[in-house]
Amino acid sequence: MQVVNVQIPNNENKTYPIYVGVDAIEKIAETVEMISPKNILVVTNETIYELYFEWLTKAFEKISAKIGYCILPDGEIYKNKTSLETILTCAFENKLERNDAIIAFGGGVIGDIAGFASSIYLRGINFIQIPTTILAQVDSSVGGKVAINTPYGKNLLGAFYQPKAVISDLQVLKTLPKREILTGLSETVKYAFIEKTCGAGFTDFAKYLYANTKDILQLEFEKLAYVVETSCKLKAVVVEQDEKEKGLRSVLNFGHTIGHAIEKCTQYKVFTHGEAVAIGMKAVFMIALNLGKINTEYYDFAVDLLKSYELDFKIPKEVTVAQLADALSFDKKVKDGKVRFVLPVGYAKAEIFDDIDLQVIEGTLKELY
Fold first, then answer.
1. Is 233 a known active-site residue?
2. Which residue is catalytic, options 27, 164, 256, 264?
């Protein structure tokens, strides 16, 4: 088992471990003992509950705290105020106190919404992540961003709230449908495109992903563990430097600005998050190539890497460029009326730009249908 530590500077209370491995769930008793809660509320969804209730119950055998469950419907469309209120009602009914804990057991939707509930219930209680998708293990469970969606856009109501620990057991990934595997690997590919900017030391993650595509897609545990661990390390080093996204952390939004707009305009029903981000990543490579910030060789390599993980999608014709442009105006990263974009500027390196002409963006979008 591998352990990645996230260390938020000047705040020991926000320093926590990420356990990665096929037996990582064994760390749950030790993690819970660290905070000594009397009551625990497990937030999950119907699909995960049915698949893993017995497995999780066995892991809880050494825990003396009383365990309650809050089971939500499965899907991005339920990452909303109604589900948030359901979790808070369950927390009150289970009489959770300040020293108790909420455990998020599921993918990114569950982690985000359970984390947000943890951040506002009694002004903040203990929160533990047990992510069950690749997307959640490599990205959303790490870094403390928690939120819900609104009719105006994705993740517009939320907080920065760090967990006490993240337990990423690779065993649970074996039941994922292929589509969910690919959507998680989309975020992994993102890290390969920004690796040098993260400042964690250049290890050529992109070439590793390219060389080991077959084994990674088949969830070969040794290589998958390296992928999850490396992704977490890259994100952790960014979060440690910029927890509240005042500068460097924005680079983690590589591909997300357009991706979020596509998700909103398709009402979260056409693409998974990773699929939408994949379109967004191809878009920023196209913009960067047109602006002369990268060369054709790197552009071709990036597009080939996306294709090797079957991450090649088109914007549906029923979604107009005008609708996407309007959605971009509501993005969280809008500053002084301008959309902030993260663009590649060299191999595995990206920078943040505030001055990309809207006509350039709209012109690129037209090429993605």
1. no
2. 256
